[in-house]
Amino acid sequence: MRNTKIGLTLLCLWIGLLPVIAQQKELSAAGDSINLSTEVVVKKKNKANNNLANVAAIPNTGKSIVKNRSKRVIPPRTNTLLLAEMGIAKNPEWGAGLMFGQMYRGIGWYLKGRSNFTMMKDANGWIDSYDMLPDCRRSTSSEWLMDAGMLFDVLRGQEKKSKRNHLGLYVGAGYGKRIRYVETVNEGWKKYAPNSYAGLSLDAGVIGSIYGFTMSAGVNVIDLKYMEIEVGIGWTF
Hints:
Layout: H1 2-57, E1 79-88, E2 95-104, E3 107-115, E4 126-127, E5 136-153, E6 166-184, E7 188-210, E8 213-222, E9 226-236
Parallel strand pairs: 4-7
Antiparallel strand pairs: 1-2, 1-9, 2-3, 3-5, 5-6, 6-7, 7-8, 8-9
């Protein structure tokens, strides 16, 4: 009986201590949470202090500090132009041809060729002066030229990828020939020297492009004697 009383007494004490043990566990868990929160707060505070120190080290220039953002850089493009040209003069046999070139960073090159596609293979001899010109039935001319030169963009607009706009100059040189033919009554076709030219070909003018649509206008001189007005229309790619 005595042992039974002792057992009941110990059981009652254990039951009485259960709330105290549970409270101690809750206090311990709360303490661990407080310690963790304190560590997080301390780390954030240290990071903030470091940021303030870095900002303080930057000299005051009166300008706001903006984060660098990577921007898409568009490289300068090479523009290719192709034009159909025509040479205009007082004589009716106008020439036609092509002009091809490229521009990069405001400077470029071009090639051009023009002809009136008239060939007189059966011409026999020359008429050297107007005084020797006999009665003639009709006359015609043959012309061709090849030039090469430089392009100079004034506006430098062709570097923009979205807007192929530019206004420039072109200057070039090459070789050209224009021969005048007359058909005589008795001797057939002859070359007429006073209106025939061959030698150095020089041309110069302006060229402009708006959203790719390109036009040109200039002058061409053969042998420093014969001049034509040249106009062109085309596209810049």
